[in-house]
């Protein structure tokens, strides 16, 4: 996958300046003019780059979602693994600047409207993964797609929140947790989980679609 967020230094500086002001004065008490002055840009430039105070908080997410959409639109041998790689990319982006990520986390926790938007943003990642799996695996049961998307998103958020709280959390821990998730969905071999063995005999001339139907029926039984 590509390197971390392709954001300009000026944009990063504005985000950092805004978060510092939010931490010092509070989100509601900080004006756009104050952010622009602190970042050394004009008010019009601020609005052109972000649109509003809320958008500064979630600026990284907007770029990440675009980046992940492009990544998932490219060919992948294993769509399940591709979703996990996308989760790792999100984590590594925030882990690359943990102090800024923690400051953002603290601001969001203290403002109900920002918490609501964060919930919506998290769901956008989940929906992105769900829709990708359905496209990449035609015929996939929608319940399997949404269940896996929700599981990997929840695992990612759990490890990320540990990082944001200053606890021990790393990309390797997330990678191991995502591997365990794939194992639980039967997508990865695991010595710790029992394996089902199915033996079936069918006529060589049977249509593949009928073979799949009969196997599915036996497995459901």
Automatic annotation (TrEMBL):
Keyword 4Fe-4S: no
Protein origin, superkingdom: Bacteria
Key words, A-Z: DNA-binding
GO molecular function, one term: transcription cis-regulatory region binding
Pfam families (alphabetical): TetR_N (PF00440)
DNA-binding annotation, residue ranges on this chain: 31-50
InterPro entries in alphabetical order: Homeodomain-like_sf, HTH-type_TetR-like_transc_reg, HTH_TetR
Domain HTH tetR-type: 8-68
Listed name of the protein: AcrR family transcriptional regulator
Species per Swiss-Prot/TrEMBL record: Microbacterium halimionae
Top-level taxonomy: Bacteria, Bacillati, Actinomycetota, Actinomycetes, Micrococcales
